[in-house]
Amino acid sequence: MTHTEDSLTLRQAQDDVDQWIQTIGVRYFSELTNLAQLMEEVGEVARVISRTYGEQSFKASDKKVELSDELADVLFVVICLANQTGVDLTEALRRNLEKKTKRDATRHQENEKLK
To answer: What's the CA gap between 17 and 38, in Å, rounded?
Structure first.
């Protein structure tokens, strides 16, 4: 890893995940397997949030689960999917924010539900 511990760009994250896959993970799972993995990890995020902020209670086996770790699991799988499909997440996020900025320039300010 070539970044400082407190700073990590999307490009570096993509490179770090690729390095981990190549050296420890052996190879990428197929895109379909990673999609299933992503759904599983998102479900784990939902479980933590529903128990932390919603009405559900934690099971004894869930009490040590941390939202930050579950979100990192989601990010890891998203990065795997980006890497194996040739998506540059830095550029994709930049374009996505530009799209949202143009499309939603006044939408949220004008939304009565947000006032």
So the answer is: 15
DSSP three-state, residue 108: coil
Buried b (16+ CB within 10 A) or exposed e, 77-94: bbbbbbbbeeeebeeeee
Q: How far apart are CA 66 and CA 85, in angstroms?
A: 29
* Beta carbons within 10 angstroms of residue 21's beta carbon: 18
The DSSP string of 22-81 is: HHTS-SPPPHHHHHHHHHHHHHHHHHHHHHHTSSPPPPGGGTT--HHHHHHHHHHHHHHH
The model's pTM? 0.87
pLDDT digits (tens, 9 = 90+) for 25-77: 999 999 999 999 999 999 999 999 999 999 988 888 877 899 999 999 999 99
